Amino acid sequence: MTEMLTTRRRLLQGAGLGAAALAAPAIVRAAPATVNCAFFVSTSPFMIAKGGGWIEEAAGTKVNWIEVASGAEINTGMAAGSMDFGFGIGSSPTASGISQGIGYEVVAMMDNIGPAEELTVRKAANIKTPADLKGKNVAVPFGSTSHFRLLGFLKINNLTQRDVNVLDLRGDAMLAAWTRGDIDAGYIWSPVKSKLLAAGGEVYKTYDKLEAAGYAIADLIIARAAYSAANPAAVSAILAAYGKSLDVYTKSPDDASVIVGKQAGVAAEVAKSDMAEYDFVPLKTQLGPDWLGTPGAPGKFAGVLKGTADFLVEQKSIRKAPDVAAFNKAINTSYLAKAVG
Amino acid sequence: MRPWMATALVASALIAGWLWLTLGGVVRDLFLPPPGELWDAFVDLLQEGYKSRPLWEHIVDSLIRVFVGFGAGAAVGTLLGLLMGYFPTVDALAAPFVEFLRPLPQLAYLVLLIIWLGIGETSKITLLFLAALPVSAVAARDGVRNVSQARIQVARSLGAGKWQIFRHVVFPSALAEIFTGARLAVGIVYGTLIASEIIAGTSGIGWMIVDAGRFLRSDYVFVGILIIGFMGIALDRLLLAVETRLVHWAGKQ
Predict the structure, then answer these.
(1) Structural domain of residue B49, as residue ranges?
(2) Interface size between A and B, measured as CB pairs under 8 A
(3) Which of A40, A87, A321, B3 is 20 to 30 Å apart from B55, CA to CA?
(4) pTM of the full predicted structure?
(5) Domains in chain B: how many in total?
């Protein structure tokens, strides 16, 4: 066994040397040449920092921007080691990623989602109570925070996925299916949500009861642990840059909406009304007991992630969830504390 | 070395490598689950099903889609191909469309199919139908074109009419190529299955793999791949068996 281990080590060393030799010409300085950042095209103050080149400035290196459509893509990219940052990943894919031991940490929050993701029902379908959803086609992107909410909604109303036909549809496909009349309800975020509302939909409020029942959802900023451990100053600087964009939004939502709208490809008014639905938690507040907490005094959020992970296990989406201590460990607020202080 | 020995050798080397990588702790189960975990996942799927549907239902749903999509696509495609091979005018009319459709990636028109046909079974099966049709058509047309002129002339000199020549000479001679085309089409339909089940999926082995992949459930993904792989081999063998029964003379002229 020992012999085998040494052989393996030698083999891996050999492989490492080979890789280093191949990569050598690219490495000029000690710092990584580029930082790989996954992001969503969304109406968020973050787009101000991204569009203004503030992240590049803070990182002190080139940034390779990777546009994603789901948190699942970020989990895959992080597992493969090809992403260093995930901006705006939902709490539900994050809980699943941490449970599966993907080596990343939550370094900050972006927003508390609240009513920004909500169930939209077709006015003509006359859906007024949860029971009215029986036998109806309800679409949601599987694996998203909205999916987590919808399943939670069914559960607290004692409905099963056999009573309600829950369909897996991404944004563009959901809009197409809605336009054709194939679905009567969809749980999603804007811009698709506003388009459903404009095309004969109305809001069916679920978020208040769900939040009371513990089904809170949020968007987070995560960093690959190997990257953040090696570049703590860069992580703090990037978070500070995000904080600056948040200030721009708080001071003048109108000006911010123009920039965000341009970046996200929507009208400024649309960007403004979309952003108004999110609760963009200020960096200082995130360090409080209600959210992430501080390195010494962890906040409530680890419990939210733990609850989310337990629910995913119940749904058989993931195999097992670690205890709340593991989630506390995966939330590293030291960079945020430096960025604020 | 006999062929089966080479197969057994490479298979056991693969399994040994798998055991060494997973049980030796070289890679985490997230990247490659050990055999024990795969077995547990398989048993779990058998007993509990996947996402509120039993495993057999996923398999049957996928099989129905493949059979209907492939069956209709191969039947229509073969008929079209025979006509194209026999009547140059039909060939001139249909060839541009068939040639255009054949190399087209199915994912390219996936959203169009949803808009046109909705999110139900119709769009899924149509996608598979469109994948099978051009391959079968081209195979049947080439089969007809490759029939030896000598045989046709012999039949004609014996006084056979156009229909009789087609029925007794052209069609049987083209049958071998038609079957080759069908086996090719099954492969393509099978490859398209996952794309078709992404459309508003809640069932099917292809959807199961995609959905499990989203949560990085590598154990379910691997079980799904094994199931879909063995189903594919079984389908191919089935076609091969039908072919050897029907076209037993192939290659023996």
Answers:
(1) 32-246
(2) 82
(3) A321
(4) 0.79
(5) 1
